[in-house]
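Weekly modeling sync, notes
Attendees: S.R. (lead), two postdocs, one rotation student

Agenda item 3: backlog of single-chain predictions. S.R. asked that every request posted to the team notebook include the full sequence so nobody has to chase files. The rotation student volunteered to paste the first one in as an example of the format we agreed on. Action items at the bottom.

Example entry:
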Amino acid sequence: MSHGSQDRPLGPAPTIEAAAERVLGPALRTGQSPFEEDLYTWTPEVAEELVRRLDADAEEQSGDSTRSPVMQALHDQLEGAPRPVLLLAAELLYVQQLPLSTVTSRLKRGRIRDVLSWMENPPEIPADLDEALGEKGPLTGGLGFNVQMREHLRWLCSFVIHWADLDATERDAALTDPWEFQRAARSTPGDWRAIRYSLQYLAWPGYFQPIVKHEHKTRIRDAFADLIGGPSGIDELDIDQDLHRISEVLSAQLGQPVDWYRGAVANQWQRHRDDHSRRAWLVRPGRGGVGQAGQWVAQNRIALPASHLPRIPAHASRLEVSQAVEQGYPHLDYQARFQLTAELHTFLSRMSPQDVVATVADAKLHLGTLTDDLGYVEDGGQQLERSVRWSAVTLDLDTLPSPLSELIGEPGTVVDLTDGLDALLAVMHPGRHSAESAVIEAPGAGTVPTLPEVTEELADGLHMPRKELQEIVDTLQQRQQIVFYGPPGTGKTYLAQELARFLAGADDPSRVQLVQFHPSYAYEDFFEGYRPTLTESGQPGFALQAGPLRRQAARATSDSGREHPSFLIIDEMNRADLARVFGEMYFLLEYRDRTVLPQYSPDTSFRLPRNLFIIGTMNTADRSIAMVDAAIRRRFAFMELHPDTPPVAGVLRRHLEARGASTEPAELLEALNSEIDDSDRDLRIGPSYFMKDQATEPGGLEAIWRYDLLPLLEEHYYGRLTRAEVHERFGLAALRRKIGRA
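Predicted structure, as returned to the notebook:
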C-alpha cells in the first residue's frame, strides 16, 4: 500500500483498486476521511461510537418505504449521530460495496448517498470515488453482503479500533507487506472472513484474490496447485500465497488478469475434486429391478425409478425434493416418503462428477466413475438417470476389504460408501494408490490403532506404578471404552486426561476432548440436536448442530486425525440418564464395524470410528455405580481407582517424597481412611485433596480439614453420627494423635 502505483501488481479491476487505494491509504496511515479531508474519521473514538450505535436495537418507526429493511434499521440506529460517525459509516459502507459484482452501480451509490443524507450539509461522493462505483466489481459477494451489511460495518469498525491498537512497527509492516497486513486483519477480534477477505483484496490487489469464500479459495488452489509444484500448506496464509503465485502464472499464460468465476478457469476449478473431496456411492436397482444392474454396466449409466416424481432440476434442495415427493407419492407411508426423499436428494444433489459409483451384479461389485449431471428417461416409466464410466475392475462380494464388507450390507437404494473410498480407489487406480491401502485401515473400520506403551517418565510424573498404568492402557487397547470409578479425590479425571494426552501425542491437542455429564444432559447435547441460531437473513431459527461425540468422531476421521488415536473423556458419567444420552449410540459402542441412522439425520449413516477411544469417570460417593444399567456395563471395562489399591495407593507419599516435603499428609490420609469402615469403603478419601501446595503450607492442612474433608464426612455420616462425633473421630487433632504427631 505504501508503494507507488507503478510498482503495484495489477488486479482484475484497476479503477476499483485505485479507488480503494485512495480511500484506504490515507485512512490507515493517518485516519483521514476520504469524503471530507479536513476530518479524521478512521479513529478508534469514532469507530467505538459507531459500534455502540450498531449494537443498539433499532426503534420501531414507520420508516421510509423506499428503503430496504437493512438500510431502514441502519438509519434508525444512526439517527442523531455526530457528523464524523455518519461519515465513517458512509465510508465503511463504500468499502463494503465497492468491489461487488452482485450489486448494481445505482444501488451502491444510492446506499452511500442515503447515509450521507442523514447529516446536515451532506458532502458529495468525490468524483473519482463515484466513478469507481460505476464499474462492475470483481467480487461475487452473495447474499451475505446485502443481509449482513450492518454486521460487516461492525467488523470494519473493530478493524479500525484494532488497527489503532497495533504499535507503529506492526502498522508500518502491514502497510508495506501484504502478508503482514493479513496477519493484522486476521487478528481483529471477532474475525469475519467474508468482509476481511474483501478488505485484504482492496488493500493489496494483485496479492489477494477477489474471493470471499474460503471453500472457493481452497478448491481453486487445489485445482491449479500443479502450476506451482503443489500446495504449500493448509493454513490461510499458505492458501493465499499459493493463489498469488497461481494467479501470476495464469495471468502470464492468458495475457490478462484471471477471472476466477468465468470461462475455462472457472470450469476447471469448479469441476476439480481431489480424492479427499470425492465421495463413493452404492446404487441398487429399485423395486422390481432385478437384473437392471447388469444393464447399467453395459449401458454406462445408473438410474432410479421416478414414475410419479414431478421434474425437478439437479442440485435441488432437500426441501424441494421433499415437496416433489409429497406431491407425487401421497399414497406412500410417511416413513417411505422420508426414505424416498433422502435417496432422491442424494441422487439429484449430493452425487457429483468424479464420485465413485458401485453396483452389484452377478455376485460382484462393479466400480465406475460418475461423469455428468442428471437426465430424465422414459424406460418402462420415468427414471432419473446419470452417466457412469464403468471400469473393468470388479470385486468378489465374499472377499471385500473392511469397511466395504460392512457398508454393502446397509439397507437402501443409495448407500454412502465414502468410508471405503480409499479401498475402492486402490483397486481402480493401483498406480496412484498403494496396494497396501486396498485393505483399508480407515476410521470406523479396520484395525484399532496401536497405543504407545507407558513410559517410566509418565509413570514418575503421575507417581503411579508403571505396571498398573500399562494394564489400563492394555485394557483400553482391547476394549476402546473404559470407566474409572472410585471415591472422590482419587484422580479419575486427572488420570484420564494425562493418559489420553500421552497416548494421543502432543502435536495436536484437539485429539483429546472432555465433556461433563449432569442430570439435565441429553442426546441432543451429546451427539446432535437442533439449537437456536441466526439465519442468513439475520432472523432467529434452529439449525442441526453436532455435540461433542459427533465433533470428536469427525476429528478422528479427518485427514489429519485418521492415522492417530483420538479420545473423548466423559467426566461424571453416572450423573446423567445414560440411556437417554447415548440413544442409538449404545449399539455403536458394541459394534464399531456397523452404522446407524441417527434420529436427527436419518438419511446419513453414522459410524463410530475405531480410532476414537472413550474414557468415562464415575464418582461412587456421588451416585452408586450400582445404578448404571447392564447395557453400559457390557460396553465399558470398569477400572477401580481407590485409595487402598494400586495405582492410587501410595501416590500421595511418592508425590511428597519427590518434592522433598513432609510425609505427614500421607500418614494422616492413611489414618483417616483406616477410621472409615469397610462397609463404607466408597466413602474413603482420595489423595487429590492433599496434592496441592496448600497441603504443605502453614495452616494448610487445617484449612483442608475445615473446608473440604469434614463437611464431606458430615454429609456422608448424616443420620448416623452427630457433627460432634464426626469431628471427634475424623478431626485433624484426633488423627494427629493417632499417628503420634500431636
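Discussion: group reviewed the output briefly. The two ends are 76 Å apart (CA to CA).
Action items: rotation student to repeat for the remaining queue; S.R. to check formatting next week.
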